[in-house]
Amino acid sequence: MLPMITTGILALGAPPSPPGTQPNPQGQMFYSMGMMALMVIILYFLMIRPQRQRSKAQETLLKTMKSGDKVVTSSGIVGVVISVKEKTVSIRSADAKFEILKTAVTEISERSGAESTPNP
Q: In the 3-class helix/strand/coil scheme, how is 47-101 assigned residue by residue?
C-alpha cells in the first residue's frame, strides 16, 4: 500500500527537466513579484482610492453644512438644520427637535441659500 501512495505523490510532482538544462528560478521569481505588484495596484484602484474620495466628499459636506439646510440622516430622518456645533447638529423634523452627530448626516438635499424657480 505504501509504494502505491508514494508513486501517486511522485506522479503529482513537476516533470524532470531535460538533461543538460536547469530550471530558471529567477525568471519565476520575477514573474511572481510582478503579479503581486499588479494585484496591489488593482487593489488600490478598486478599493482604497474610491474610499478616500468618498471620505473627502463626506468631510466637505459636513464642513459646508449650515443653519437652514435640509438634510437626510443615515437612519432616514429628513429635517432642517437649526444649529451646527462642533460635533453635533440640531435638526427639526415635523414637530420634533433632534440633536444628532454630524457624522450621521449623509446628504444635504436642499441648501438654505438656493433660489427656487417660481412655477408659471
A: HHHHHHHHHHHHHHHHHHCCCCCEEEECCCCEEEEEEECCCEEEEEECCEEEEEE
